Model the fold of this input.
Amino acid sequence: MKPDGKDIYSVDAYDYYLPEDAIAQEPAVPRDTCKLMVVNRATDEVHHVIFRDIVNFISPGDLLVLNNTKVMKARLFVRKPTGARIELFLLKPHEDGTWEALLRPAKKVKVPSYLLSENGKVKIDVLSRSGKVFKVKFRDMSFEDVLRLLDKEGIMPLPPYIKSGEKVSPDMYQTIFAEEMGSVAAPTAGLHFTKELLNALQEKGVGITYITLHVGLGTFGPVKEDDIRKHQMHGESLFVSEETVERIKETKRNGGRVIAVGTTVVRALETAASGGELKPFAGESRLFIYPGYGFKVVDSLITNFHLPKSTLLMLVSAFYDREKVLNLYKIALEKGYRFFSFGDAMFLI
Done:
């Protein structure tokens, strides 16, 4: 039990009040002019600056780790053979050519059945269903073919709390270093970086390396279990290269900090070190980080302000301190910080 009387394993311990007008609807322009709260975890000292000032808080020899995943235009409108319109939301591909997907309205789709693209040229077989998730397969199409179809006809899957979707161009919800296609949501801490800012960091002697973690739909959802330890994480595809592992080890040997840009990078690196030593990793992560977790790799964290009762807020609370984090959220609201995907940022050093 913590001093505020709340059990750290209770989901209610990660709830907080957030007025709707504090939820960012569009990104800052330029990206690196959003607000940044810099927090020294050793001294509890707090600085309020703009994001591009982060250069002043990162030292030569530190290593910035970014997630280079790219968001798919995963929402696609299709039709039943009867002509009824259905929304197909692709979540995750499998090696056998099938995809996990949501279909809306689900009650109008039978299993097995098939759907058609808007022009009728593409057939999508609906193979099975587990809960809300369907398994579908694009007939006679490779993964690359499906991506090309999405790029041409798909819609960027913005989070439901962004109401001004028509004002948001697809590139606004993509990091400037996005490369590996596969996410249905952006690694939002990376959205704040511009080419100029990354160049300035490199000129200062800061290293930059990448992991790939394809963000799934469940990332931003609330935990519904009263006891957070009972929560089951969704699986997310992950790749940590040998080069990134070696650069991290070299940074630590030389006394530099490993700075994770976003919770996805934290989960990636900590998954790759789950055996006790950081090693290259290719597979799936279901790692759930909450208070009590012992971090093995990450020294500092750049992150956005997250949803109440979310696994992301629990991860940040594990990295610092739950009560202190929630108090910082209160301060952020008082100072006009913007929350969630297009919002402002926090740097925990």
Summary: The chain has a mean pLDDT of 96. The two ends are 26 Å apart (CA to CA). The domain at 75-153 is CATH 2.40.10.240 (Thrombin, subunit H).
